[in-house]
Amino acid sequence: MIKRFFILCSGADTAILETCSNGEQNKYAGIGATVFFTAVMAFIASAYALYTVFDNVYYAVFFGLVWGLLIFNLDRFIVSTIKKRDNFKSELLQATPRIVLAVIIAIVISKPLEMKIFEKEINQVLLEQKNDLTLANKEQIALQYSPKKEVIHQSIEKLKQEITTKEAETNALYNTYIAEAEGREGTKLLGKGPVYEEKRQKHDAALQELQKLKENNAAKITTLEEQAVALDTAYAASVKDSQPIIDGFDGLMARITALNKLPWLPSFFIFLLFLAIETSPIIAKLLAPKGMYDFKLEEEESIVKTWVTQKVEQRNTLMQTDAAINKKVYEDIEQENEIYNYKKQQAEKLLKQQTDAFHNIQAKNL
């Protein structure tokens, strides 16, 4: 049962192969098994690749099955259409387009499995790329908010500097009227005289201005700090909203790019492995000697070709003979006066009828 299934997979003519030896049947069963398991590998590889795209098991299995059946049909077609000839160069020339197609199929099949085999290494590369993208994303978003925050910080520092300057002026006035009361500066008179009162009033006025300035600037600073907090909140929200895009940076193209950053030698050997699997049925048919099945198949083709050639030649001969006979018959008829006279009479009748009909039409128009 399994043997018959694999022979069916090889694309061989089962009616002819059943008349061949067991060794010939086993050879084509081996070729069919290679075709079948290549399709299975194509199904697994494509299903995994599509799973990374759709992130859905059902879609991946369905389209993977379609791709596996397509590869199975192509491989079966490739193997079944290679005919053994007595000239190896002609066989190789016949198989060259199929080998090129097999190389393309091997590349398509091997890439998804390479991504699965090197999944941990690819995840590490993707993690590094995601980290770089996260930092770059934060820097780009910060460029949108940094100028505004810088203006706010400068405004806050300016308001604080105004308070500091006013405090320094008030403290200076305080030291002035204290020094006047102690007799160390000014009039050099100890006690609280008119000059002391004047300086004390200036200090008190400056102190009131300072308190008012502190209140006004404190309100402005609070407003600016709230604006800065709002900018920080908006920045954090922008980073949070864009982070899922970076976290989702693990699609098929991203994984292929990450795979290309890994050492090429392991991937190359895996590709060679699948190339060997994919081309093995073709190489087997090219290298295998001409067997009983090939001779019988060539005989069947020769019989059909000969039969078709005979039929075509017979039809051509019949057509040529019939044409020659018809030509001779019409040449003989051309020499008979009876037919000539009959045709002349019929033509005269027709001309008379045409003349009468034309005359009647002209008469009606008068």
TrEMBL record:
Q: InterPro entries, from UniProt?
A: DUF4407
Q: Which Pfam families does the record cross-reference, listed alphabetically?
A: DUF4407
Q: Where are the transmembrane segments?
A: 28-51, 57-74, 268-288
UniProt KW keywords? Coiled coil, Membrane, Transmembrane, Transmembrane helix
Per the database entry, which stretches of residues form a coiled coil? 149-227, 330-364
- Please state what the protein is called: DUF4407 domain-containing protein
